[in-house]
Amino acid sequence: MRKISFLMAFLIAGYVLGIWNFLVLPKYYITFGLKGFLISLIPMLVAMFLIYSEAESTKKTRYLIYELFFKISRTPALIFSLMMFLMIMLGVTTYYSSYGLALIFGMGSMYIPILALGTILLSVLMLVMAKGRTLEFISVISILFVLFALASAFMIRNQALSMVTAPQAAQYMEGAVSSITSFDLPLTMRGVLFMVVSVFISFGLGAGVYYVLGSFTPEELDLRKVLAAVFVLQIILSLAAAFTVAYSLGAAYQAYGEAFQNPNIPADESMKLFMKFNDLKDYTTNSEKSPMDSIEVFYSIPVVLRGNVPNDTTLIALLMLSLYLAGLTTIIILIEMGSQMLSEVMQLGRNQSLGFVGIIGMIVAGAMVVGDVRTMFVVVPFAVAALMAVVESYPLLSSELTHNKAVVSAVMLLLFVSGLAALYYSLTAPKMPVKIGAVLGLVLLVPVLMNGMLLKARR
Fold first, then answer.
1. Domain 1-457: which topology?
2. 419-435 burial string, b = 16+ CB within 10 Å, else e?
3. For residue 214, which of 55, 96, 155, 198 is within the disulfide window of CB 3.0 to 4.6 Å?
């Protein structure tokens, strides 16, 4: 049982500790400091409560997710909304994971769809080959990801401390590093809202994954202990990513400063480094900037490190491989859980459902090479993730389940209010792709309106 607990902890960690821990959450740990970190613990605990409740629902009843939704909560339509959200998250995660892989090999953005295609094919192939060993397989990848992420954070810290010598560069770096542990930074309402929504996204709520996980969790396994371990890992990895960005800021400033002073470096290359530094500076100082506008700033780090720090190739490879493995574990779990849900709903075989989910993920990831389309899909989780979490948690209110209905209702209210606020900011954004992305997110909720039809059809 100890082995199962260990594997389940890393299975859930592999899903929770994904690309968002690198791309989004560090921004708020730097701009808000310890006050922001303490506030972020509230949505983290809310997410943990929902994860535990959802997994326990199928663990105790031994229902599969569609059976639970149909027989217990009488809401079979909800699963279709969850599956559509899952497939969009699969495509988005695949694209940004492949982005990191492209930077390792020095490839342009035009090759990202090819890498995304290969990533999903690899994931499907590994799931087909793993068969009954899927749990062990995903756990091994999760362990490698955690080790690589921590190792890259320590390496960047050591390299930055040894090579950042320019006074202004050291000042920027020390300011960003000290911000993470500061209680003096101001909070903004909009920034805190974005942080709360980002936490919900990072925990993977809204895709129905935890109901599926609970359906095959051993009855004697204590999920509370497993989730406690995941909670600690989530905090450690998010803070490690924040320090990675903070130390990279000093390297970025020094790199562009030296480039402008070196006549052998072309002006366009110097300007490129200056723009990357500005992106990182804005990321670490502007809490109100939309997460959609900041999500790609993390990829500036390899640009400013390459050729400007010792062992840059190893460092970049380790950092981007950490990001890729973080995405890969999430991708594999999304494909596996999505295929199980699809198999239940459509009565398909395992290979057929794996193939279908994989193809949808490929289409979304491939389409994201177009800038406006990428913005549209990235907006979806930030616009409706909290609302999707409300949809996902609604079955917990069923009288046949033993959860505290008052607590569940309070959590759903918190999610609903934050979800409406995030949706409002997306719908009123000046950019049209952002508005379209928010509308697309609302479309995911349309199946909920057809619940009565599905109940009649099943009768």
1. Amino acid/polyamine transporter I (1.20.1740)
2. bebbbebbeebebebbb
3. 55
